[in-house]
Q: What sequence folds into this?
């Protein structure tokens, strides 16, 4: 057995424990807990959080750029950077893999994971803003490591465990930044470019091979190109990453949704059957779905949840690290952006992918058998797009998906470079982050040199390991999240005037943010008066 085969075997054992035996229970339990404690905020205040997020885009305090001398980024930039990191291959390859391995019913459990994940992500962002502090450069630093150390650690007798879990989370985040943030993403970029834009002279040159696949010269060249471009952006810091994200993310999301709607529209007569397959096989899987031996409900649920979390990252404690850099003052306001993030990622984009696969005929809805020409994962989605976008022998659909994967996955690499930077900063200090960034850029090429299955499986494992200490922190501070939420609802929704805002755990930051919030509210009032006159 060679090294890669042994690595795959060890990873499989760890992955099974982290995800099946522990992670999914903790993940679902946390989502349900936070949903109940916030009184189903994602439903009861749907109109409010929608208005305060995507509905507030005209406000310069939400979408406007900060001054050059400011170290924060706008709320919209924070969302785009977070979406850049979450909207990746999980939205295309991940959904297809879930359907192939868990059946159409896995999509239903992705929705369930997203519904409760909205409030998990909300809670992470609320805690991230509440416990954030400024670093040596004057930039905000927040994330699970801070609310584990300063939040959980503030409880009597928990100082040691809080600090230990904070360090553990940071270590796992560093590993995940090379897994989900680099290897898995780059690997799928390479696979799809090689498939859609064939250059036989390069693909036929094999660098090395193992039982799980081979790596070509073409893959190496693509990896080198991504490494160079990534370096130019990543080494420029968060503001450069955010500037790229706010331009690329809206374009790629809209383009993918429009393309998906065209494919679904062309097969409109299968939409009803697709939803029927999703709901019926979620609880009673057909024996033919997922292979000759069939799949158990446990398998369907596991695949749905794993791919749901891989896609929207709710529960990982990852996106909170960029949300914490926002110019927002209210913890709950950034929490609402977290709700929208999960909604957009899973309820919209992942659903589009699922319906494209299930309506286009690349999978037989009765038997679950994949069409011989369709392939698996992202190539399955590409085949679905080819059913509509094809001129003669030119597969325009495959080319579109290859470009979509390139944009989705590469922006994920950019976003995760920031997450890893913040974890490294927590462990080794602000000045040392330049070494992490340089190493991360060099490691981008590793995803191009690993075979597909290993890169994807390792990413899964790193996700799960990162999730555990984060969710322990969220659960332990769940009462505080409920208190901050009630405080916001009383002030902003019920209009109570005598309630003091809860903006930060630290008195000096609380005072600073209160003053800034008053100034912002006065400016917003002025904006509204000017708009009404026009």
A:
């Amino acid at each position: 057995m060679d090294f890669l085969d042994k690595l795959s075997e060890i990873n499989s054992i760890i992955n099974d424990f982290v995800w099946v035996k522990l992670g999914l229970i903790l993940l679902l339990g946390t989502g349900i807990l936070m949903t109940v404690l916030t009184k189903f905020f994602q439903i009861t205040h749907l109109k409010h959080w929608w208005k305060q997020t995507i509905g507030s885009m005209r406000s310069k305090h939400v979408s406007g750029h900060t001054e050059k001398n400011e170290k924060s980024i706008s709320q919209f930039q924070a969302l785009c950077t977070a979406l850049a990191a979450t909207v990746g291959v999980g939205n295309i390859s991940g959904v297809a893999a879930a359907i192939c391995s868990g059946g159409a019913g896995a999509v239903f459990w992705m929705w369930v994971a997203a519904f409760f994940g909205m409030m998990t992500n909300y809670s992470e962002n609320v805690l991230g803003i509440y416990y954030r502090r400024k670093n040596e450069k004057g930039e905000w630093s927040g994330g699970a490591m801070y609310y584990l150390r300063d939040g959980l650690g503030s409880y009597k007798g928990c100082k040691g465990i809080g600090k230990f879990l904070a360090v553990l989370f940071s270590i796992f985040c560093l590993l995940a930044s090379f897994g989900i943030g680099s290897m898995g993403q780059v690997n799928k970029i390479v696979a799809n470019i090689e498939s859609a834009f064939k250059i036989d002279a390069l693909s036929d040159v094999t660098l090395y091979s193992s039982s799980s696949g081979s790596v070509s010269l073409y893959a190496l060249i693509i990896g080198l190109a991504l490494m160079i471009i990534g370096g130019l952006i990543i080494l420029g810091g968060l503001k450069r990453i955010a500037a790229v994200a706010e331009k690329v993310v809206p374009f790629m999301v809209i383009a993918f949704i429009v393309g998906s709607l065209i494919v679904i529209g062309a097969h409109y007569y299968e939409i009803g059957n697709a939803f029927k397959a999703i709901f019926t096989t979620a609880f009673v899987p057909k024996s033919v779905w997922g292979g000759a031996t069939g799949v158990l409900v446990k398998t369907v649920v596991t695949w749905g949840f794993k791919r749901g979390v891989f896609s929207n990252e709710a529960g990982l404690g990852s996106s909170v690290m960029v949300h914490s850099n926002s110019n927002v003052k209210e913890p709950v306001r950034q929490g609402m952006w977290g709700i929208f993030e999960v909604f957009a990622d899973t309820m919209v984009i992942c659903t589009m992918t699922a319906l494209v696969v299930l309506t286009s005929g690349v999978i037989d809805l009765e038997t679950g058998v994949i069409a011989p020409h369709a392939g698996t994962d992202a190539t399955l989605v590409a085949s679905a797009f080819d059913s509509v976008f094809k001129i003669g022998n030119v597969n325009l659909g495959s080319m579109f998906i290859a470009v979509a994967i390139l944009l989705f996955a590469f922006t994920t690499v950019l976003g995760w470079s920031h997450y890893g930077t913040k974890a490294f900063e927590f462990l080794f200090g602000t000045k040392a982050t330049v070494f992490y960034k340089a190493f991360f850029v060099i490691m981008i090429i590793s995803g191009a040199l690993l075979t597909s299955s290993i890169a994807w499986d390792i990413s899964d494992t790193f996700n799960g390991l990162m999730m555990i200490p984060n969710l322990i922190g969220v659960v332990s501070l769940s009462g505080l999240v409920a208190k901050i939420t009630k405080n916001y609802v009383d002030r902003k929704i019920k209009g109570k005037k005598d309630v003091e805002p809860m903006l930060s755990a630290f008195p000096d930051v609380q005072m600073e943010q209160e003053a800034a919030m008053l100034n912002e509210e006065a400016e917003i009032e002025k904006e509204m008066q000017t708009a009404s006159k026009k």
Notes: The radius of gyration is 23 Å. The chain is about 70% helix and 0% strand.
